[in-house]
Request: fold
Amino acid sequence: MTDPAPTALHRLRQSNAERVLGCLRRHGELSRAEVAEHSGLSRTTLSTILGDLIRRGVVVETELPPSNRRGRPTGGLALNPGAGQYLGLELGRNRIRLVLADAAHRVQARDDLSYGSARGAADRLALAERAVREAADRHGITLGTLAGIGVGSTGPGELVLAPAAGLAEPDGLRGRELIADRLARAFEVPVGVDNNTRLTALAEATWGAAAGASDLLYAHFSHGTGGGLIIGGQLIRGTGGVAAELGHLCVDDTGPECWCGGRGCLERYASVPAVLRATGHRRWAVLRDALAGDGAESEVVRTAGEHAGAALAAMCTAVNAGRVVLGGELAELGEPFLRPLRESFARRAMRSLRGGVEFGTAGTAPWGGALGGLALALHESPLLARYPLPQHPEQAAAPDAESGR
Amino acid sequence: MTDPAPTALHRLRQSNAERVLGCLRRHGELSRAEVAEHSGLSRTTLSTILGDLIRRGVVVETELPPSNRRGRPTGGLALNPGAGQYLGLELGRNRIRLVLADAAHRVQARDDLSYGSARGAADRLALAERAVREAADRHGITLGTLAGIGVGSTGPGELVLAPAAGLAEPDGLRGRELIADRLARAFEVPVGVDNNTRLTALAEATWGAAAGASDLLYAHFSHGTGGGLIIGGQLIRGTGGVAAELGHLCVDDTGPECWCGGRGCLERYASVPAVLRATGHRRWAVLRDALAGDGAESEVVRTAGEHAGAALAAMCTAVNAGRVVLGGELAELGEPFLRPLRESFARRAMRSLRGGVEFGTAGTAPWGGALGGLALALHESPLLARYPLPQHPEQAAAPDAESGR
Reply:
């Protein structure tokens, strides 16, 4: 056996460098003190590593806005914006939303467009591809440096990842696998596809109402009703990929059967179509205006809020998330929906939960799905798990370089 | 700055060794192939590390039962049983249960006793201490090699850890802090105290009905109703330490107020006292016998099962756990409770959940709380996070030894 010393040392250096890069990927721009705090590395070690990363152009020094009284700007650190672009894409029910960002988390371009006449999955994917290329063109972004794509799509199911070459058997693919495969082949980068609501939870924990929170329940009340759960900073998918399917939590066991196979599901009460159906309106804007009056609309929205509060009480009893972020058209109605929701939650939740839960409204809407895709590409998926670091010359040919990983 | 090379190399070796020891702590006895699989280390690296650990007496070679057709025994590996004892203790409602095990997960002694006339916390702790010392004596175990204690106690609340010296301000402590402090001082080892039901989830995932499962919901129907949740191999405690408080999930919002501040909590229906109250019986054995007849007992137990199924459907919708383990006296009633539970679960849960959830009954009862305490001491707490490894002589005085951790 050869002496493992040089390889081992290189790996330790690389592992420390990855820790620093991981902090910057996760949090965007940070001061040196913040990098030290998040990485847990000593000042001496950190100084060596940062010197090396800056020299090699992987990390750049920036100027943070003044945070002290004297108003002097402080030095910040960020991943080199030139080190790669990331694309977050939402293939929503009616619209495509896209966000192009650099590795420093700076959004360079965003766009949204309706599907128009594009109906089938293939047409819609082609439209999305064209929209990305056009947005990049308009903003002078070279897509040759694109490093990863994260996509939020509708409906339940598991995370799908495709390598840059696409999936092994591209024929007959459907749903998320089709999306991942086609986009990977079109842009020649790895692609991750997950539920758009679940990804919004990730966006809210990264940029939104609960930025930096490590435990978060996101609840979305829109055309569908859904949720996303973050525990310990990680998106929880569950054994079958359907964790936090809030819309299919039973809130009335004498209620109607649901397409999901359950009964009295929250989505039958606290979603845009359910509220429209119950009030006899066809357009959301009309219903919204009617809420100011004394009609049946207030009662329907109040019932929706009560059921939502009951479902959230059950969810919070299950996982004791300290932050609950509410999004979607119903949440945007404000107090007519939110007051009964909070009251119903308080009536059902144990005292120690009630005091410990902070409610907020979504801060990333309507870009949550696209920003969540971006967050997936930037720091949740294995896409970026190995930031490229050049081998030190003396270890380039070490035979045991993979051990210990 | 001094050359960090020797320290760095030592740390890498130590980190690989810790990875191997972590696998053995978590899984008990393993074959070399299993250690390689769980640790992800290369054959060459593993062979060097194991040679060193065996030479130093930290790991021992064992003989695994034959697993192949030829019936030849295969070599196994385990932590050296002589490397330390661990104590799992349950301070239950009526009884103390204790389990003494070696670092190889082998239980050497167990005991259970009632509190008798011991009423206050101090008396009960003194009784528990005496019981541990007597059990050790009876089995010839030297408590001088005791390395850690995990305790399951009743009631909600957060994990409390005390270092071997006890807590900093020992006066006026109550509940878990009192337990942790007094036991740490009595045995001069670190102590972790958590909810006994939550710890049973850990026991079930380590030794019980779901051994090796990484996602598990444990539901306990006894004097109280509670639960424990494991996601990705980790016990989930939640922001306020009350995750998986199944007993306080609201199953009937027109139901009675609960001491917890909620309303219509599951514990009001699916617990031993609730069932006794509703049937007018005073003794569980009598109720159990009456279940064979056509009396009101069957109806009460059926309702309890239905409510339990509803609560579990909500919990599984929240986290999509693939395994549900049921324990406690109600679960032990069998089909009169379990059939309505499963049917109620199936009626409410979305189809994709229904097919994906495997129900089982507890395999560690009545030792779940004590074994869970043991699991906490063995592999969940920081007690064992740094298995002592001697410094290599050339690095003993390296100045930067703490950087990078």
